[in-house]
Amino acid sequence: MAAGIIDGKACAVGIRARLGESIKARVDEGARAPGLVTILVGEDPASKVYVGRKQRESKEIGMHSEAAELSATVTIEELLAVIERYNARDDIDGILVQLPLPGHLDADRAIAAIDPAKDVDGLHPLNQGALFTGREGPRPCTPLSCMHLIDSTGVELRGKHAVVVGRSALVGKPVAMLLLERHATVVMCHSRTVDLAAQVGAADVLVAAVGRPRMIKGEWIKPGAVVIDVGINRVDGKLVGDVDFESAAARAAFITPVPGGVGPMTVAMLLSNTYEAALRRG
Ligand code: NDP
Question: What's the topology of domain 141-263?
Fold first, then answer.
């Protein structure tokens, strides 16, 4: 049985279209457009591409979007002062500090300086705490993207056995919390997990967020599973995921491709979080 391919690009197009309509309706009623600022430090080419996409897509749906570009040699005090300026601005609802930051800058300090109400990446400690304790707050974009893609298959999560490979604060841990919130039984795997193949083999829903090209083999996958591949790895100039796509697609019921799966949805989730932040801030 060949898996259904979960089309992240198409899901993202749908979400952007709905957000664009909602923004237009609000602006027509006299409200201001939601405001987003992206803060990019340095010249990392991948970060520039990601920030460029966030800028373009936010403008396309009618948001007010600003790009702050700081030199790679900026000090933490200078970066914190820039964040503080955007915290104070009423017309800015979302502040995104593009990660990774250059090595001399403490990313935790920068994230903690963002007004939690404007933390559209959902990484501020207060918002992480809200996720872990089941309180409202912006959720991290990539984990949200995984949940939307799972939901797009129509598969019910309640009572399912979900396995998350990877335990980073950015992806693995928050996605596990979101799965738990939806009443899945969740197992988290990492580099010290014994017999990863057996753990993966038990998964009705698998989320792979490791950063190792094609490390999860098709023969490990439980027939009929939903497979969400967060990994983005460059191999011979091509992007590949953490799951061996061809062999996994032969066993899974649904699978995300790389590229074209989680990636495009992550930006759509950022836009959605910015819109929600604007609604909450009034
Ligand atoms: P990290 O490097 O922070 O975390 C990787 C995790 O994988 C760690 O928890 C690590 O375990 C675990 N791991 C490493 N090797 C193994 C192994 N052999 N077996 C089992 N687990 C292992 O990565 P991120 O979470 O930030 O990102 C993961 C991937 O997702 C990357 O490819 C990244 O590029 C991609 N990504 C994609 C996004 C998107 O929008 N599509 C957004 C963010 C990330 P341990 O904790 O024990 O070291």
Answer: Rossmann fold (3.40.50)
Q: Is 210 touching ligand 1 by the criterion CB < 6 Å?
A: yes
pTM: 0.96
> Using a 6 Å cutoff on CB, does residue 168 contact ligand 1?
yes
Ligand 1 contacts CB of residue 266 (under 6 A): yes
Active site residue 238: no
Q: For residues 142 and 164, what is the distance between their CA atoms, to the nearest angstrom? A: 13
H or E segment to which residue 80 belongs: helix 76-88
Whether omega before 213 lies within 30 degrees of 0, making that bond cis, reads no
> Is position 121 annotated as part of the catalytic site?
yes
Q: What is the CATH number of domain 31-115?
A: 3.40.50.10860
- Per-residue pLDDT tens for 50-107? 999 999 999 999 999 999 999 999 999 999 999 999 999 999 999 999 999 999 999 9
Atom of ligand 1 nearest to the CA of 265: 40
